[in-house]
Amino acid sequence: MIEYIAFTQNGENLALKLQEKLGGNVSRSGRPESLRTWISRRFGEAEALVIVGAAGIAVRGIAPYVESKAKDPAVIVIDEKGRFVIPLLSGHLGGANNLARKMAEVTGGEAVVTTATDVQGVFAVDEWTKKHTCSILEVDRIKNISAALLAGGVVTVRCPWQIVGTMPPGIMMTAAEEADIAIDIKVKGESPMHVIPRICTLGIGCRRGTTASALEHFYQRLLMETEVHPDAIVEAATIDIKADEPGLVEFCKNHGWELKAYSAPELEQVKGNFDGSKFVEEVTGVNNVCERSAVLASGGEILRGKTAGDGITMALAAREYRPDWRWLGE
Fold first, then answer.
1. Which of 79, 96, 178, 287 has its CA 20 to 30 A from that of 29?
2. Whole domain around residue 210: which residue ranges?
């Protein structure tokens, strides 16, 4: 969610114009919150903070809360005439640069983007990961990748998927485990900066009364056996009669996942060869919950079939992944 704050009526009018095109919430400083209170309450929650006013005021306001590029939200300052849109914080991972460009299109102004890779037109791996819904495990290595490309060097990339489009200058594909960048749902090697596509769904079945800790223990076992990194998993799925199971709800909440729930007829319609159980069918109305729900939620294919034990079943499915070389939000 984008949060805007303005100090004058002209600034508020501009914020409302941006809200109409880009969404979000508009506040007026002092009515009732001060800028400091507004920032403190939203810094850790909002996707982007947009301050319509002077850059100095914005810098002083956010200074106590700045932590790291991996955690900070996008912060943008824009003058109240909309002439200059300046990303101050989290330009790539937080999406501030791309959002500033969109805002400039609305206002007819200019996005003042100062990150070196953007200025030099060099491939920005952190902006690429943002665009392609990935996470970076070793965020501190981004500067090394960018520095190598800015110096005219070569950066090697390992990826099991074909990346379509025109390869950026300085990038070279490799099959070597110790590439500079490894794009995969599994972590291999110590040298690469690991980029994890967030494309997997965890399908879950469980008996009544299963605790969150039991589900967590089983889940950790599944990760160990599959070597899939947890960042690759973005949601969970099950049958609707389990959607209110307290342990399951708590388990998903602990991981920040949406729990998608489907009826037995919906799961029955899912195409595929699934590891069915007569007992499960008698209880739920469908012969398999974990695999079918994972496939239905992801729209993809089974990555790891049913793993069962202690009244729990889990399966992993992954949606089709089609990366390309674009990174600037086009």
1. 96
2. 200-318
